[in-house]
Task: inverse folding
């Protein structure tokens, strides 16, 4: 008889909403936490992570189940949009700092990185992401012309190449993209709109044929999503989840498309070996994750070894999709604030985030006493309630790990 | 939670992208169609305990990603699989044409004795059919595969697919054709049969004698 599972989430959206309001982001929290953990590190004190009251994963579940995406925007909104209840003073002051920094004729990118590490307010996120990714120049005067040129260039590619999608040597690529797009974020109505799906198809196809060493690999489609959502926010005030893009001006939509393409390309430039033949980048990082975890939490490592769980079995996806399948979209966006602020955020810092993420579940992991239980837990971690708070804690711990191991890689090699 | 079972079989679900592998697995375990299916990255794991021919069998199922680029990863799961569902989409000739490659992979990388059932999925989309039952059935015969047309949407033949495969493996164990003890057989004894094994018949009789005195 089939073993049933229940989804383990009992909070209604409203409850979550309220909870999120209460623990509304303290933007500086990460910095504070990072300092705390560093202090703890020297004293060799292990920071105890609260397992979280909602970590109860139903034991009987037996099928890979990805949590449905809960209101993407409920969480976006709590990042102090104009429509939401008053910002905290700290948030307001942070937003001010961003605005001041961005107002000058030459944005100090180092300062911007420092400020962004702990999260970027929604109002300034689009421009900040474009600056941090290197898409926009620091010099404010040049930005308009750069944008114009890049957008023009992208639509030039479309004109030149997009018709070739049905040519024999490209049809496999296009077909794969075409069947994956309707399956991208299947629970968010925004992504079910035909015009949005066409945008994704164009972005991915053009990227794929311009990067033949990897081509299109499943998972890359997910990586467009955060950029697209953030850049849509540049033009709208309301929620994005159910937003009808046809109400946008055509030019706005074209800008969003081109900007998403270029920023995604920048991201992928740094992690292309994740997607080339045999995916060496991922193999290497999963290996490094295993070594790292064996050093930072031997109990967890041994426990998984004992039940013959291999890191590749769960962490492959963590690397291939940059944890996007494990976290709600709103958390990915927050995570990427830091990844873009951190040198080699996507290619290197991500490893420490994965290690911190795994050890975050140590209690749940140690409670599982067989291969099946462990596998189901690790492929379906209960993060659907997660918001900025949890991501902040995760990032602080990752930072601590990086601080301890990055400059001494032999530390984590056995 | 530890259920008792007589055997544990390791299963694979393989086939081209978009043929409905994950939906078949979901239908098998949850008894419903997964509307919001996202494509599989690497492999995903599922499990269900079934009753076949009076034996309790735990199926440990690895659902693999269909895209070519993931083969280097998914191939590592082939080793030690006792059974496989080889899936194509009856509305896509391309996925049918790829079957030979998948089959070669399965037979060379998994055990040569792997029991494979061919599943022509999306049976509910008969209007868009590109592969006839007869054609696929011939292919199955030539390649010594069992064959069913399935629908992950309606659930038709999904259970049968998994059970048929499990039953064939059990029969082969009974007939001695498959040796569960062989390395990489993809078969393990469960607690229930282990107990029987640990207690050979002679000793059971002895116990009884002891009890009666």
Result:
């Amino acid at each position: 008889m089939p073993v049933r599972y229940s989804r383990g989430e009992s909070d209604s959206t409203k409850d979550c909403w309220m909870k999120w309001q209460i623990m509304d982001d303290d933007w500086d929290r990460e910095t504070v936490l990072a300092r705390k953990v560093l202090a703890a590190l020297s004293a060799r004190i292990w920071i105890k992570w609260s397992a979280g009251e909602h970590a109860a994963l139903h034991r009987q579940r037996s099928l890979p189940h990805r949590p449905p995406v809960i209101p993407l925007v409920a969480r976006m909104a709590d990042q102090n949009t104009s429509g939401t209840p008053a910002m905290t003073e700290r948030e307001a002051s942070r937003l001010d700092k961003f605005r001041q920094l961005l107002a000058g004729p030459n944005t100090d990118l180092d300062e911007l990185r420092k400020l962004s590490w702990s999260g970027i307010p929604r109002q300034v996120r689009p421009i900040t992401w474009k600056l941090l990714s290197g898409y926009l120049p620091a010099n404010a005067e040049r930005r308009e012309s750069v944008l114009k040129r890049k957008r023009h260039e992208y639509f030039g590619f479309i004109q030149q190449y997009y018709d070739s999608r049905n040519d024999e040597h490209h049809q496999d690529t296009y077909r794969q993209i075409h069947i994956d797009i309707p399956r991208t974020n299947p629970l968010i109505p925004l992504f079910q709109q035909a015009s949005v799906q066409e945008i994704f198809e164009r972005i991915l196809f053009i990227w794929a044929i311009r990067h033949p060493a990897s081509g299109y690999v499943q998972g890359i489609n997910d990586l467009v999503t955060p950029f697209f959502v953030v850049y849509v926010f540049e033009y709208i005030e309301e929620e994005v989840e159910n937003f009808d893009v046809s109400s946008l001006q055509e030019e706005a939509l074209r800008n969003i498309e081109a900007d998403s393409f270029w920023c995604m390309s920048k991201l992928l430039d740094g992690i292309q070996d994740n997607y080339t033949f045999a995916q060496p980048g991922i193999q290497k990082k999963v290996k490094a994750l295993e070594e790292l975890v064996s050093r930072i939490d031997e109990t967890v490592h041994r426990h998984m070894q004992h039940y013959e769980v291999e890191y590749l079995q769960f962490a492959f996806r963590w690397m291939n999709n940059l944890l996007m399948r494990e976290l709600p979209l709103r958390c990915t966006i927050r995570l990427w604030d830091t990844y873009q602020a951190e040198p080699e955020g996507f290619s290197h810092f991500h490893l420490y985030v994965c290690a911190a993420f795994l050890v975050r579940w140590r209690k749940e992991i140690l409670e599982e006493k067989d291969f099946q239980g462990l596998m189901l837990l690790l492929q379906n971690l209960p993060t659907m309630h997660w918001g900025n708070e949890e991501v902040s804690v995760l990032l602080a711990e990752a930072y601590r790990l990086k601080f301890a191991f990055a400059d001494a890689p032999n530390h984590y090699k056995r | 939670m530890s259920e008792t079972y007589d055997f544990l079989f390791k299963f694979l679900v393989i086939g081209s992208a978009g043929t409905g592998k994950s939906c078949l697995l979901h239908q098998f375990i949850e008894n419903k169609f997964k509307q919001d299916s996202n494509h599989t990255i690497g492999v995903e794991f599922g499990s269900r305990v079934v009753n076949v021919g009076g034996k309790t069998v735990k199926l440990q199922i690895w659902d693999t990603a269909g895209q070519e680029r993931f083969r280097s990863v998914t191939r590592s799961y082939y080793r030690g699989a006792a059974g496989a569902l080889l899936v194509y989409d009856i509305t896509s000739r391309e996925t049918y044409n790829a079957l030979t490659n998948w089959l070669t992979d399965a037979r060379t990388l998994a055990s040569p004795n792997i029991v494979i059932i061919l599943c022509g999925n999306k049976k509910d989309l008969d209007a868009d059919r590109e592969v006839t039952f007869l054609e696929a059935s011939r292919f199955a015969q030539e390649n010594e595969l069992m064959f069913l047309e399935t629908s992950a949407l309606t659930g038709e033949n999904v259970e049968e697919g998994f059970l048929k495969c499990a039953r064939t493996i059990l029969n082969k164990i009974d007939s001695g054709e498959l040796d569960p003890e062989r390395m990489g057989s993809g078969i393990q004894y469960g607690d229930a049969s282990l107990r029987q094994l640990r207690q050979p018949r002679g000793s059971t009789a002895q116990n009884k004698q002891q009890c009666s005195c």
